[in-house]
Fold:
Amino acid sequence: MSLIQLISFPPLGDDRGSLVALESQQSIPFDIKRVYYIFGTQQGVARGFHAHRQLKQVAVCVTGRCRMVLDDGEFREEVWLDSATKGIFIEDMVWHEMHDFSDDCVLLVLANQLYDESDYIRDYTNFKELASD
Ligand code: TYD
Structure:
C-alpha cells in the first residue's frame, strides 16, 4: 500500500459556495479527539520532523497549500496538500514533514488522541531504529 493515503472530502456545495463536513468513522477513519491548525507559517519554515508512536491524524489544507513528506523508515513519498477537499491520513509510526507553506496556508489536523509529548519520536535516527523493529 502506498504511504500516501489521500481522502477525498465531498464538497456539499450549492450556489452560495462550498461546505465540507468531517465526521468520526466516516470520512475520518477514527474517532476524532483533538483538532488543531497551523497557520501564519513564516516563509522558508518547515514543520513536523517527527513521528508518533500511536497517534493517527488526518491533515487538510483548508486554505493555501503545503508539501507533505511521509517516511516509514524505508520509503519517502511526498504530496502537495492544496485543496480543502483533499485530506491525507498519517498513520502512527510515520515520520512527517511539512514544507513550502504558502503565506495563506491553514493546515487543519484531526487527531485520535489528546496531545501527549511522550508519544512523539523527534529524532530521525531513533525513528529509523524503532521502525525497523
Ligand atoms: P509541534 O508538535 O512541535 O509542532 P509541529 O507540527 O511543527 O511539529 O508543536 C508545537 C508546540 O505546540 C509544542 O510546544 C507542543 C504544542 N502543542 C500542543 O500543546 N498541543 C497540540 O495539540 C500540538 C499539536 C502541539
About this structure: The longest strand covers residues 57-63. Residues 5-10+24-132 form a domain with the Jelly Rolls fold (CATH 2.60.120.10). The pocket of thymidine-5'-diphosphate is lined by residues 34, 36, 47-48, 50, 115 (CB under 6 Å). Residues 124-131 form the longest helix (8 residues).
